[in-house]
Amino acid sequence: MTDSRAVVPSTAGAPPALTSGDMLRGLHTVRSVLAPDLSDDELKLFAMVATRSGLDPFAKQVYAVKRKGRVTFQTGIDGYRSIAARTGLYDGQDEPEYGPACECGDDRPKGHPEFATVRVYRKGVSRPIAATAFWHEYVPAAGQSGEGDAMWRRMPRVMIAKVAEALALRKAFPYDPERREGIGADIYTADEMAQAGRPEAPAASQQTARERVAQRAAAIAEPPAEREDEPSPEPPVETVAEEIVGEFTPVPVAGLSAQSLASLAREAGRTKGQLAVAIGALGKPVPAPTDVTAVVTALTDEERGRLADELNLDWRTPGQVA
Length: 322
What we know:
Blueprint: H1 20-29, H2 31-34, H3 40-53, E1 62-67, E2 70-75, H4 77-86, E3 90-93, E4 97-98, E5 115-122, E6 129-134, H5 135-138, H6 150-154, H7 156-172, E7 187-189, H8 190-193, H9 209-221, H10 241-247, H11 258-268, H12 272-281, H13 292-298, H14 301-310
Parallel strand pairs: 2-7
Antiparallel strand pairs: 1-2, 3-5, 4-5, 5-6
Helix pairs in contact: 1-3, 4-7, 9-12, 10-11, 11-14
Protein backbone atom coordinates (compact mmCIF):
# COMPACT_ATOMS: atom_id res chain seq x y z
CA MET A 1 0.00 0.00 0.00
CA THR A 2 1.37 3.34 -1.02
CA ASP A 3 1.50 6.04 1.62
CA SER A 4 0.33 9.23 -0.08
CA ARG A 5 0.85 11.49 2.91
CA ALA A 6 2.67 14.74 2.29
CA VAL A 7 5.87 15.06 4.31
CA VAL A 8 6.83 18.55 5.43
CA PRO A 9 10.52 19.29 6.00
CA SER A 10 11.46 20.28 9.53
CA THR A 11 12.00 23.93 10.37
CA ALA A 12 12.39 23.39 14.11
CA GLY A 13 14.60 25.79 15.95
CA ALA A 14 13.78 28.84 13.81
CA PRO A 15 13.35 31.68 16.33
CA PRO A 16 10.65 34.35 15.99
CA ALA A 17 11.85 37.28 13.94
CA LEU A 18 10.70 39.85 16.51
CA THR A 19 10.57 40.05 20.29
CA SER A 20 7.29 40.92 21.98
CA GLY A 21 8.55 44.48 22.56
CA ASP A 22 9.57 44.85 18.92
CA MET A 23 6.21 43.47 17.87
CA LEU A 24 4.33 45.92 20.10
CA ARG A 25 6.30 48.90 18.80
CA GLY A 26 5.62 47.80 15.24
CA LEU A 27 1.91 47.34 15.92
CA HIS A 28 1.73 50.80 17.47
CA THR A 29 3.27 52.22 14.30
CA VAL A 30 0.68 50.65 12.00
CA ARG A 31 -2.16 50.50 14.50
CA SER A 32 -4.57 52.48 12.33
CA VAL A 33 -4.22 49.83 9.59
CA LEU A 34 -3.94 46.52 11.44
CA ALA A 35 -5.80 47.09 14.71
CA PRO A 36 -7.70 50.38 14.82
CA ASP A 37 -10.35 49.12 17.26
CA LEU A 38 -8.05 47.62 19.92
CA SER A 39 -7.40 49.17 23.31
CA ASP A 40 -3.81 49.53 24.52
CA ASP A 41 -4.08 46.36 26.63
CA GLU A 42 -5.59 44.40 23.73
CA LEU A 43 -2.78 45.61 21.47
CA LYS A 44 -0.22 44.35 24.01
CA LEU A 45 -1.99 40.98 24.08
CA PHE A 46 -1.97 40.91 20.26
CA ALA A 47 1.80 41.44 20.29
CA MET A 48 2.28 38.63 22.81
CA VAL A 49 0.10 36.20 20.86
CA ALA A 50 1.82 37.03 17.56
CA THR A 51 5.29 36.60 19.10
CA ARG A 52 4.44 33.34 20.83
CA SER A 53 2.81 31.83 17.74
CA GLY A 54 5.58 32.97 15.38
CA LEU A 55 2.94 34.32 12.99
CA ASP A 56 3.58 37.70 11.39
CA PRO A 57 0.72 40.23 11.73
CA PHE A 58 2.44 42.56 9.25
CA ALA A 59 2.16 39.81 6.62
CA LYS A 60 -1.46 39.23 7.78
CA GLN A 61 -0.68 35.72 9.01
CA VAL A 62 -2.52 36.58 12.22
CA TYR A 63 -5.01 39.34 12.94
CA ALA A 64 -7.29 40.58 15.70
CA VAL A 65 -11.07 40.54 15.32
CA LYS A 66 -13.61 42.04 17.71
CA ARG A 67 -17.07 40.58 18.15
CA LYS A 68 -19.51 41.82 20.77
CA GLY A 69 -16.76 43.76 22.51
CA ARG A 70 -14.39 40.78 22.86
CA VAL A 71 -11.20 40.35 20.88
CA THR A 72 -10.17 37.08 19.24
CA PHE A 73 -7.04 36.28 17.27
CA GLN A 74 -7.40 34.48 13.97
CA THR A 75 -5.28 32.98 11.24
CA GLY A 76 -5.85 30.99 8.09
CA ILE A 77 -5.29 27.25 7.75
CA ASP A 78 -1.81 27.99 6.36
CA GLY A 79 -0.97 29.64 9.68
CA TYR A 80 -1.78 26.40 11.52
CA ARG A 81 0.24 24.42 9.00
CA SER A 82 3.20 26.76 9.49
CA ILE A 83 3.11 26.38 13.28
CA ALA A 84 2.87 22.59 13.00
CA ALA A 85 5.76 22.42 10.52
CA ARG A 86 8.03 24.50 12.78
CA THR A 87 7.74 21.89 15.53
CA GLY A 88 9.67 19.45 13.34
CA LEU A 89 7.14 16.76 14.30
CA TYR A 90 4.55 17.24 11.55
CA ASP A 91 4.45 14.11 9.38
CA GLY A 92 1.72 15.05 6.90
CA GLN A 93 -1.96 14.16 6.67
CA ASP A 94 -4.40 12.06 4.68
CA GLU A 95 -6.87 13.42 2.17
CA PRO A 96 -10.16 14.49 3.81
CA GLU A 97 -12.97 11.97 4.11
CA TYR A 98 -16.52 13.21 3.66
CA GLY A 99 -19.83 12.05 5.06
CA PRO A 100 -22.89 11.45 2.90
CA ALA A 101 -24.80 14.29 1.28
CA CYS A 102 -26.83 16.07 3.92
CA GLU A 103 -30.60 15.55 3.67
CA CYS A 104 -31.48 18.66 5.65
CA GLY A 105 -33.12 20.35 2.67
CA ASP A 106 -30.79 23.37 2.89
CA ASP A 107 -29.67 24.16 -0.65
CA ARG A 108 -26.65 26.29 0.39
CA PRO A 109 -25.52 24.38 -1.68
CA LYS A 110 -27.55 21.32 -2.49
CA GLY A 111 -25.71 18.08 -1.72
CA HIS A 112 -23.25 19.50 0.81
CA PRO A 113 -21.57 16.83 2.99
CA GLU A 114 -22.80 16.12 6.49
CA PHE A 115 -19.23 16.25 7.79
CA ALA A 116 -15.55 16.02 6.92
CA THR A 117 -12.82 14.10 8.73
CA VAL A 118 -9.09 14.83 8.51
CA ARG A 119 -6.27 12.67 9.93
CA VAL A 120 -2.98 14.31 10.86
CA TYR A 121 0.27 12.48 11.59
CA ARG A 122 2.80 13.41 14.26
CA LYS A 123 6.24 11.84 14.43
CA GLY A 124 6.59 9.49 17.38
CA VAL A 125 2.84 8.86 17.61
CA SER A 126 1.79 5.42 16.39
CA ARG A 127 -1.67 6.35 15.13
CA PRO A 128 -3.13 9.29 13.22
CA ILE A 129 -4.88 12.08 15.09
CA ALA A 130 -8.32 12.58 13.57
CA ALA A 131 -10.93 15.30 13.89
CA THR A 132 -14.40 15.61 12.38
CA ALA A 133 -16.23 18.85 11.60
CA PHE A 134 -19.99 18.74 11.05
CA TRP A 135 -21.42 21.05 8.41
CA HIS A 136 -24.24 22.59 10.42
CA GLU A 137 -21.97 23.39 13.36
CA TYR A 138 -19.70 25.60 11.26
CA VAL A 139 -21.50 26.90 8.16
CA PRO A 140 -22.26 30.62 8.61
CA ALA A 141 -25.71 32.00 8.02
CA ALA A 142 -26.17 34.05 4.88
CA GLY A 143 -24.33 37.34 5.41
CA GLN A 144 -23.30 36.33 8.95
CA SER A 145 -19.53 36.34 8.61
CA GLY A 146 -17.41 39.13 7.15
CA GLU A 147 -17.76 37.68 3.62
CA GLY A 148 -21.12 35.99 4.07
CA ASP A 149 -21.45 32.34 3.10
CA ALA A 150 -20.28 32.79 -0.50
CA MET A 151 -17.25 30.50 -0.20
CA TRP A 152 -19.29 27.84 1.62
CA ARG A 153 -21.78 27.87 -1.26
CA ARG A 154 -19.05 27.75 -3.90
CA MET A 155 -16.67 25.21 -2.33
CA PRO A 156 -18.55 23.34 0.42
CA ARG A 157 -16.18 20.35 0.63
CA VAL A 158 -13.07 22.54 0.75
CA MET A 159 -14.45 24.78 3.50
CA ILE A 160 -15.65 22.04 5.86
CA ALA A 161 -12.40 20.12 5.27
CA LYS A 162 -10.35 23.19 6.31
CA VAL A 163 -12.26 23.33 9.58
CA ALA A 164 -11.67 19.61 10.18
CA GLU A 165 -7.96 20.06 9.42
CA ALA A 166 -7.73 22.96 11.87
CA LEU A 167 -9.33 20.83 14.61
CA ALA A 168 -6.93 17.98 13.89
CA LEU A 169 -3.82 20.19 13.84
CA ARG A 170 -4.79 21.79 17.14
CA LYS A 171 -5.26 18.34 18.71
CA ALA A 172 -1.97 17.05 17.30
CA PHE A 173 0.18 20.09 18.08
CA PRO A 174 -1.06 21.83 21.25
CA TYR A 175 1.11 24.62 22.58
CA ASP A 176 4.11 23.33 24.58
CA PRO A 177 5.28 26.04 27.03
CA GLU A 178 8.63 24.31 27.60
CA ARG A 179 9.53 24.21 23.92
CA ARG A 180 7.55 27.39 23.22
CA GLU A 181 5.95 25.97 20.13
CA GLY A 182 2.64 24.59 18.95
CA ILE A 183 -0.86 25.94 18.41
CA GLY A 184 -2.20 27.95 21.31
CA ALA A 185 -5.83 27.90 22.42
CA ASP A 186 -6.02 31.65 21.82
CA ILE A 187 -5.76 31.44 18.00
CA TYR A 188 -8.55 30.09 15.81
CA THR A 189 -8.85 29.89 12.06
CA ALA A 190 -11.12 32.26 10.19
CA ASP A 191 -13.03 29.28 8.77
CA GLU A 192 -13.90 28.06 12.27
CA MET A 193 -14.99 31.53 13.36
CA ALA A 194 -17.13 32.35 10.29
CA GLN A 195 -20.23 31.12 12.11
CA ALA A 196 -19.52 33.38 15.11
CA GLY A 197 -20.94 36.44 13.40
CA ARG A 198 -19.83 39.55 11.59
CA PRO A 199 -16.85 41.35 13.17
CA GLU A 200 -17.50 44.75 14.69
CA ALA A 201 -16.56 47.86 12.78
CA PRO A 202 -13.78 49.87 14.45
CA ALA A 203 -15.34 52.19 17.04
CA ALA A 204 -14.44 55.86 16.90
CA SER A 205 -14.98 56.05 20.66
CA GLN A 206 -11.93 53.84 21.17
CA GLN A 207 -9.53 56.48 19.90
CA THR A 208 -6.96 57.52 22.44
CA ALA A 209 -7.23 60.94 24.05
CA ARG A 210 -4.10 62.04 22.19
CA GLU A 211 -5.65 61.01 18.85
CA ARG A 212 -8.91 62.80 19.62
CA VAL A 213 -7.06 65.98 20.62
CA ALA A 214 -4.94 65.92 17.46
CA GLN A 215 -7.99 65.33 15.30
CA ARG A 216 -9.97 68.17 16.86
CA ALA A 217 -6.97 70.53 16.77
CA ALA A 218 -6.42 69.81 13.09
CA ALA A 219 -10.06 70.58 12.36
CA ILE A 220 -9.73 73.95 14.10
CA ALA A 221 -6.32 74.84 12.67
CA GLU A 222 -7.14 73.84 9.09
CA PRO A 223 -10.61 75.07 8.02
CA PRO A 224 -11.90 73.91 4.62
CA ALA A 225 -10.51 75.84 1.65
CA GLU A 226 -12.94 78.35 0.17
CA ARG A 227 -13.54 78.88 -3.52
CA GLU A 228 -11.97 82.05 -4.85
CA ASP A 229 -15.09 83.02 -6.83
CA GLU A 230 -17.25 83.10 -3.71
CA PRO A 231 -17.11 85.84 -1.06
CA SER A 232 -15.79 84.67 2.26
CA PRO A 233 -18.50 85.03 4.90
CA GLU A 234 -17.50 86.63 8.14
CA PRO A 235 -16.89 83.76 10.59
CA PRO A 236 -19.27 83.71 13.57
CA VAL A 237 -17.74 84.88 16.80
CA GLU A 238 -17.90 81.93 19.19
CA THR A 239 -16.79 83.27 22.52
CA VAL A 240 -17.24 81.42 25.75
CA ALA A 241 -17.36 84.30 28.16
CA GLU A 242 -21.03 85.34 28.00
CA GLU A 243 -22.45 81.83 28.47
CA ILE A 244 -19.97 80.81 31.13
CA VAL A 245 -20.30 84.00 33.15
CA GLY A 246 -24.08 83.72 33.02
CA GLU A 247 -24.16 80.11 34.22
CA PHE A 248 -21.30 79.88 36.69
CA THR A 249 -21.62 80.92 40.29
CA PRO A 250 -18.38 82.23 41.81
CA VAL A 251 -16.84 79.72 44.20
CA PRO A 252 -15.10 81.30 47.17
CA VAL A 253 -12.23 78.82 47.36
CA ALA A 254 -8.52 79.11 46.66
CA GLY A 255 -7.43 78.45 43.09
CA LEU A 256 -8.73 79.40 39.66
CA SER A 257 -12.53 79.66 39.74
CA ALA A 258 -14.81 79.02 36.79
CA GLN A 259 -15.72 82.70 36.58
CA SER A 260 -12.05 83.70 36.56
CA LEU A 261 -11.36 81.23 33.77
CA ALA A 262 -14.32 82.63 31.81
CA SER A 263 -13.02 86.15 32.25
CA LEU A 264 -9.54 85.19 31.09
CA ALA A 265 -10.94 83.29 28.10
CA ARG A 266 -13.05 86.28 27.09
CA GLU A 267 -10.15 88.70 27.29
CA ALA A 268 -7.93 86.38 25.23
CA GLY A 269 -10.66 85.69 22.65
CA ARG A 270 -10.60 81.93 23.18
CA THR A 271 -13.39 79.89 21.53
CA LYS A 272 -15.30 76.91 22.80
CA GLY A 273 -13.55 74.76 20.22
CA GLN A 274 -10.16 75.77 21.64
CA LEU A 275 -11.39 75.04 25.15
CA ALA A 276 -12.57 71.58 24.04
CA VAL A 277 -9.15 70.76 22.60
CA ALA A 278 -7.42 71.99 25.77
CA ILE A 279 -9.72 69.81 27.91
CA GLY A 280 -8.64 66.81 25.82
CA ALA A 281 -5.00 67.70 26.46
CA LEU A 282 -5.70 67.16 30.18
CA GLY A 283 -6.35 63.49 29.41
CA LYS A 284 -10.12 63.84 29.47
CA PRO A 285 -12.58 63.07 26.65
CA VAL A 286 -12.82 65.93 24.16
CA PRO A 287 -16.31 67.41 24.56
CA ALA A 288 -18.46 68.92 21.86
CA PRO A 289 -18.38 72.75 21.96
CA THR A 290 -21.96 72.77 23.29
CA ASP A 291 -20.84 70.68 26.30
CA VAL A 292 -17.82 72.79 27.23
CA THR A 293 -19.67 74.81 29.89
CA ALA A 294 -20.77 71.75 31.84
CA VAL A 295 -17.34 70.12 31.59
CA VAL A 296 -15.52 73.23 32.81
CA THR A 297 -17.98 73.49 35.71
CA ALA A 298 -17.13 69.95 36.79
CA LEU A 299 -13.36 70.55 36.80
CA THR A 300 -11.48 71.18 40.00
CA ASP A 301 -9.77 74.52 40.59
CA GLU A 302 -6.41 72.85 40.00
CA GLU A 303 -7.63 71.37 36.69
CA ARG A 304 -8.95 74.75 35.59
CA GLY A 305 -5.49 76.16 36.26
CA ARG A 306 -3.96 73.47 34.05
CA LEU A 307 -6.61 74.22 31.46
CA ALA A 308 -5.60 77.90 31.52
CA ASP A 309 -1.98 76.85 31.00
CA GLU A 310 -3.01 74.79 27.96
CA LEU A 311 -4.73 77.90 26.59
CA ASN A 312 -1.65 80.04 27.32
CA LEU A 313 -3.63 82.28 29.68
CA ASP A 314 -1.73 84.33 32.25
CA TRP A 315 -3.70 83.41 35.35
CA ARG A 316 -1.05 83.40 38.05
CA THR A 317 -0.97 87.20 38.37
CA PRO A 318 -2.62 88.82 41.41
CA GLY A 319 -6.38 89.18 41.11
CA GLN A 320 -6.86 86.17 38.82
CA VAL A 321 -7.51 83.67 41.59
CA ALA A 322 -10.64 83.64 43.62
